[in-house]
Inverse folding.
């Protein structure tokens, strides 16, 4: 099963609320979600990287939420639907913003080579997590915890006031869990490929 097929299977099995099919139709027909990279130079900087990253975050978030300590000591819970929504859709802000391009880099011999890359061209500059929430909300309703988890999945690496990030993590534990899952996927799973 390829990444697109796996994404569709997880999405259709878990996300059932009103508007979910319209959002999926958008991803399939009016976006580059399944072919887009996850970034221009870092994790997932290749065709299909965005879908792959979303699946990695899903696997990490599910595993985190299933930890005994998370359940028994922290009392954290989330439905399968919420886990799927937050993980699979947290980076919709990256849809249709990366354009194929080239850049020059020196090879091992110091000779300049033209290599494929991506340019960042955001025609809807609405931020990162907040843009993902905005896009999703145009199709289906999010719970408050889902919205905060998506909005703050970047944790303290955003330009936000750190007090807002900390407050979001305290009030909405799924936001902290999403940040942990996104970081694990980015730095450990995908970072190893670089």
């Amino acid at each position: 099963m390829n990444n697109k097929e796996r994404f569709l299977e997880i999405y259709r099995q878990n996300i059932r609320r009103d508007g979910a099919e319209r959002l999926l139709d958008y991803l399939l027909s009016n976006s580059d979600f399944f072919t887009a990279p996850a970034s221009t130079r870092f994790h997932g900087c290749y065709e299909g990287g965005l879908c792959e990253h979303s699946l990695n975050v899903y696997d990490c978030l599910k595993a985190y939420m299933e930890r005994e300590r998370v359940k028994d000591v922290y009392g954290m819970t989330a439905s399968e639907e919420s886990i799927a929504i937050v993980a699979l859709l947290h980076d919709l802000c990256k849809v249709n913003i990366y354009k194929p391009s080239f850049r020059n880099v020196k090879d091992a011999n110091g000779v300049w080579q033209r290599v494929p890359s991506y340019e960042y061209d955001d025609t809807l500059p609405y931020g990162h997590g907040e843009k993902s929430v905005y896009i999703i909300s145009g199709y289906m309703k999010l719970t408050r915890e889902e919205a905060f988890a998506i909005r703050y999945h970047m944790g303290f690496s955003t330009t936000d006031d750190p007090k807002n990030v900390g407050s979001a993590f305290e009030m909405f534990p799924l936001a902290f869990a999403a940040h942990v899952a996104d970081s694990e996927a980015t730095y450990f799973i995908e970072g190893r490929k670089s």
User: Anything to note?
Assistant: The chain has a mean pLDDT of 94.
